[in-house]
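User: Please predict the structure of the protein below. I'd like the answer in structure-token form so I can feed it into my own downstream comparison script.

Assistant: Understood. Taking the following sequence of 214 residues as input:
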Amino acid sequence: MTAANATTAVNQQDTESTLRAAYGEETTTTVEVSMIEPVREHDPEPASSPGTVECFVEIPKGSRNEYEYDARLGAIKLDRFVSASVVYPTDYGFIPETLSLDGDALDALVCVSEPTFPGCIVFARPIALLDMADEHGIDPHVLCVAVADPGWSQLERLEDLPALLTAEIEHFFAIYKDLDPNRHSSVSGWHGREAALREIDESRSRYLAARDVR
């Protein structure tokens, strides 16, 4: 029975009960309840066209809270607060099943029109690579655009990005650790799509090699 039919049945029974009561007849009211479970239709395999990657978002755009996925906890935790008076210019996270040169998964910056949330999976197209280093060593960041966001999905190359955005990203990562004791970062510049894809391939190979050793 649909929700509309269930409502009609209840209304009819309410009317009969009113009439019976008016003529002094005993009434017994039966209410039929329709349990309708919501159904969310989805593509069983949303994963992407060639040239896109799966990004795990840890920190939404505009945040000063730095969230981090903790494999031991199997959850996202608050790792620290950005002491400098700046916010993340894009969503930030990592590409699963990769291993960067600093011992962590390969970092990913994801351009989106609105911030997502920690733990969100975003299918994205890598279009640039930002060369960086911090207190842990070489730390490249892959810049991607969300393929489900029409405001960004048409971008294919580093040159397609707004110049102000690339400058903002460089500035953020050059200074965001300045007020933190024993932490530092430096930015060396941008590389194009091919460099980004090459870094992803090398990080995946590094991950598989490390997994086989275990």
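That's the full token string. Confidence is low (pLDDT under 50) at residues 2-13, 15-23, 25-31, 33-47.
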